[in-house]
Design a protein that fits this description.
binds S-adenosylmethionine; 11 helices; seven-stranded mixed β-sheet; Rossmann fold; Trans-aconitate 2-methyltransferase; globular; about 20% strand; alpha/beta
Length: about 270
């Protein structure tokens, strides 16, 4: 169960990588100006607005497998321009009747282990010049994640939530480039890089509040029927996070966040 409101609390810093990714996607895509765009793992529709702004005549479809996120996203729908559909990215393949110029995804593929195995089909479905562009968090070895993994495997919690520990399904920029470069009859031009953002968070337990919207979601779902255990778990995790991410003299909490970006243009 996703909680769109919790996720949207950090919509400002979460939008920046979308803009950084879009800045590296070619402006003129196949089908121009009515480019067909898929937003894979669209969530509550955050990146839809910048996509629609960049390609004002495009027809964009956001795909997601969370009913809660899709309900929230519907508020952004515009007939013929922007719509949303239920899909599981592990199985989603472009409809051959569509000719997508851009397959876009922000902060979603890390929830889909083995997502790279879909790349050959996705690139095959693109016309020449068509682009796959995505961003994934690459912070699984950061304290926010390692501390959570330790707690999930601890004697106290392991029996209930071991399966909710974060799983690192993200490859390095070089690994993504190696997979994508040979795909298609003439290969792909691949631009892959990583950036570590330094978020400066405010308020009490700000790192906990951030991960509540994403990484912590499977744990919270498993403890959902036991509020007392949920509160105990959050108190223990919050204490560990406070030690790993102390508040600075100016009152902000520095939260480094590595992200991996890939733009593959089919030749
Ligand atoms: C962190 S949110 C990102 C949402 C949006 N792209 C954004 O940038 O605001 C991750 C999204 O991926 C979706 N997701 C996770 N696994 C998925 C799957 N197997 N199929 C489709 N969507 C999935 C979740 O439902 C969630 O909405």
């Amino acid at each position: 169960m996703w909680d769109p409101q919790q996720y949207l609390r950090h919509s400002g810093p979460r939008l920046r990588p979308v803009l950084d990714l879009l800045a590296h996607v070619p402006g003129r895509l196949p089908g121009h100006p009515r480019v067909r765009i898929a937003d894979l793992g669209c969530g509550p529709g955050g990146p839809s607005a910048p996509l629609a702004e960049r390609w004002p005549e495009a027809h964009i479809t956001g795909y997601d497998n969370s009913p809660e996120m899709l309900r929230e996203a519907e508020a952004h729908a515009r007939p013929g321009r922007l719509d949303f559909a239920h899909a599981d990215l592990a199985r989603w393949r472009p409809d051959p009747a569509e000719s997508f110029g851009l397959l876009f995804s922000n902060a979603a593929f890390h929830w889909v282990p083995g997502h790279q195995h879909a790349f050959p089909d996705w690139i095959a479905a693109l016309p020449s010049g068509g682009t796959l562009a995505f961003q994934v968090p690459g912070n699984f070895s950061a304290p926010s994640h390692t501390l959570l993994a330790e707690l999930c495997g601890s004697a106290r919690w392991g029996g209930r939530i071991a399966a909710a520990a974060p799983v690192d399904a993200v490859l390095t920029p070089a690994e993504y480039a190696e997979i994508l470069a040979p795909l298609g009859p003439d290969g792909c031009d691949v631009d892959a890089w990583e950036t570590t953002y330094l978020h400066r968070l405010t308020g009490p337990d700000p790192v906990l509040e951030w991960v509540k919207g994403t990484t912590l979601r499977p744990v919270l779902a498993r403890l959902g029927d036991d509020p007392a255990a949920r509160d105990d778990f959050l108190a223990e995790y919050a204490e560990a996070l406070r030690a790993a991410y102390p508040r600075g003299a100016d009152g902000t909490t520095a939260f480094p966040f590595r992200r991996v970006f890939v733009v593959a243009v089919k030749r």
